[in-house]
């Protein structure tokens, strides 16, 4: 499976070709650079919640996640206590998984602690590779890389949880650290970070 042409004539992968919400996410957000702490903490958190679920499920719940987690402001989430955990577990609008909720609170505290060093954004972006994949089909899109494995290990060393190599690879795709848009997609090379041929722009 490769690309489908939409009614606007633009080529997109199948997952972004029909559902209006996913299509808008693909066209406007996925793969565009995110370099601020709050934006990266949100996406790291949502990628962890997505594990085992479809991204469309998480995307539909994102407004509720943002409300429940106070806009993913790390300082606010780092102060969450057992009452907040109980509140989140009772909130049917989000994914009610105790381990993932606990990991998000733990990761908020780790994010705050990182400010005394290089900070979350600088740490994550330091794992940007020298080149990015150039897939023509979904079968050629990797789910892990040497960089995502290394990022996972480093985040765990810094006190983060639910940050496995596959989850970190998905994060790197989502925030522009790598470009896994299929060759021929109208979004390929659109981030300003990568050229269409996989080299740095």
UniProtKB/TrEMBL annotation:
The record, for InterPro entries, names: Adenine_glyco (IPR005019), DNA-3mA_glycosylase (IPR052891), DNA_glycosylase (IPR011257)
Q: Fetch the SUPFAM superfamilies from UniProt.
A: DNA-glycosylase (SSF48150)
Please list the GO terms describing molecular function: DNA-3-methyladenine glycosylase activity; metal ion binding
Note the Pfam families from the entry.
Answer: Adenine_glyco (PF03352)
Domain of life, per lineage? Bacteria
User: Which stretch is the leader sequence?
Assistant: none
**A biological process from GO:** base-excision repair
> Quick one: which residues bind Zn(2+)?
181
UniProt keyword annotations, A-Z: Metal-binding, Zinc
Q: Does the keyword Secreted apply?
A: no
**Protein name, per record:** DNA-3-methyladenine glycosylase I
Q: Which organism is it from?
A: Agrococcus baldri
Upper taxonomic lineage: Bacteria, Bacillati, Actinomycetota, Actinomycetes, Micrococcales
């Amino acid at each position: 499976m490769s690309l489908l042409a939409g009614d606007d004539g633009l080529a997109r992968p199948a997952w972004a070709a029909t559902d209006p919400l996913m299509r808008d996410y693909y066209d406007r957000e996925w793969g565009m650079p995110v370099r601020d702490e709050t934006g990266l903490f949100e996406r790291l958190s949502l990628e962890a919640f997505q594990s085992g679920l479809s991204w469309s499920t998480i995307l539909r719940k994102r407004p509720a996640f943002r409300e429940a987690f106070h806009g993913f402001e790390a300082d606010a989430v780092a102060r969450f206590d057992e009452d907040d955990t109980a509140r989140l577990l009772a909130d049917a609008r989000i994914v009610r998984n105790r381990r993932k909720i606990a990991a998000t609170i733990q990761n908020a505290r780790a994010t705050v602690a990182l400010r005394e060093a290089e900070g979350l954004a600088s740490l994550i972006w330091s794992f940007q590779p020298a080149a990015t994949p150039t897939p023509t089909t979904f079968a050629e899109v990797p789910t892990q890389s040497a960089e995502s494995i290394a990022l996972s290990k480093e985040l765990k060393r810094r006190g983060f949880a639910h940050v496995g190599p596959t989850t970190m690879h998905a994060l790197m795709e989502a925030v522009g650290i790598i470009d896994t848009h299929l060759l021929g997609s109208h979004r390929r090379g659109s981030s300003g970070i990568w050229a269409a041929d996989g080299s740095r722009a």
